[in-house]
Amino acid sequence: MNAKKAMAAVLAATMCAGMSSVAFAKNNAADYTDTKGVDDVVLTFEMENPDLEADDLKASISWKDGKAYFDSVDIDDTSDGKIEVTVSFKDYYGNEDLDIDFDLVLKKGSTNKYWKSVEVEGPANGGFKKAEKDGKTGNEGTVYKTANITGTFGWGWINSDGETDDADLEVNDNAAIFDDDDVTFATFTWDTLDELEYAVKMSKQDAVNMYVDTKATDEIKAIMKKYEDADVSVVNFKGRPDFDFTGTLTYYVEDEDTEYFFYEVKDGKPVKTAAKYDDEDACFTLKTRALGTYIISDTEMDADDFASNGDDKTDTDDKKNPETGSVDFVNAAVALGAVSLVAAAAVALKK
Q1: What is the spatial distance between Cα 335 and Cα 329, in angstroms, rounded to a whole number?
Q2: CA gap 301, 262 in Å, rounded
Q3: Who has the most CB within 10 Å: 134, 149, 222, 231?
Q4: pLDDT in tens, 2-45
Q5: How far, CA to CA in Å, does 100 sit from each of 60, 69, 222, 347?
Q6: Residues 153, 100: contact at Cβ < 8 Å?
Q7: Residue 124 burial (CB < 10 Å; 0-12/13-18/19+)?
Q8: In a 10 Å sphere around its CB, with 0-12 CB exposed, 13-18 middle and 19+ buried, how is residue 148 labelled?
Q9: Closest alpha carbon to 143 in 176, 178, 115, 164
């Protein structure tokens, strides 16, 4: 796929090979959740010193590829006396495969700890593998202090089964990417969402991620809180697929006798769309090239009921785990240090 090379170049430009991530043992696995497209990588270490426990250790990661999608590290004890390290990643709903390549060491304080063996478990289609580095001969054979982990994250591909002029394409939980230059017109359906379809001309269309989530986001939950009595359904195209031609999004309502309203969620507000309701087929149809986040409600809503939050929004994704070596955190520390030096110089001059 031509787009994959472009994505690889973007990732290479945004990732710093020399940056490291350090995380102390945490026993709360609920700090993060598994994501679609990018899953956890779990390493199980048999330590050289069997008396070491998760609370004794921290994990230090040096990244070659994948730093941009790193989220957190969790360190736990296993029932058979081993150390389990879970490396988690942020959501990814793009169209390309992501290369992951990192070195991980376990430390107690500032001292690297050696281990006898490590097992790696990642996505089944990711081909994850490990290599031991920095080995030495111990009392019971070779022990190591660095594990190099490599593999690939990505979505599955939607198969057109050779259809071109009028391809019926089913999107399932993992097969969400479509990229086939031979298909001229396609109708997308979803195996877990019978009420939805999207029909569009595809001629020479770039790859699109057609994954749909029906869970309420924080923005949608805020809307639902405002309209507590509303019955709301969610259609969220997380990959934000954008097409060269205008297609038709169709949504069949649950109850033909109920009046529904079709909104797009923009900046935390339910914005009225140009969707038209068809009484005969009991469905909404929306002409659009770009697919986003929609809610279908049995209660009429007004975007003016919600304050604008454009300038008040703060992106905290890279600030929630200062121990992970976030660029923002490091830059903040450098800035504070610079301020301190300036202050000290001012005092010295005064004296």
Answers
A1: 10
A2: 10
A3: 149
A4: 443 333 333 333 333 334 444 433 222 222 233 456 789 999 99
A5: 16, 9, 35, 49
A6: yes
A7: exposed
A8: middle
A9: 115
Return the percent helix, strand and coil in the chain, to nearest 5: 15, 40, 40
H-helix segments, the chain = 2-14, 218-226, 327-350
Phi, psi of 299 (to 5 degrees): -125, 135
DSSP 8-state assignment for residue 28: -
The neighbour count for residue 90, using CB atoms within 10 Å, is 15
Closest CA to 14 of 131, 72, 94, 78: 94
- Amino acid (1-letter code) at residue 295: I
d(CA 256, CA 268): 28
Residues 6+ apart with CB under 8 A from 82: 44, 45, 46, 47
Using the predicted structure, report yes or no on whether residue 64 has a pLDDT greater than 90. Answer: yes
pLDDT digits (tens, 9 = 90+) for 118-137: 999 987 767 899 999 999 98
Other CB atoms within a 10 A radius of the CB of residue 94 amount to 22
Distance, CA of 124 to CA of 152 (rounded, Å): 10
Measured CA to CA, the distance from residue 100 to residue 62 in angstroms comes to 11
**Closest by CA position to 87, among listed 9, 8, 31:** 31
pLDDT at site 16: 36
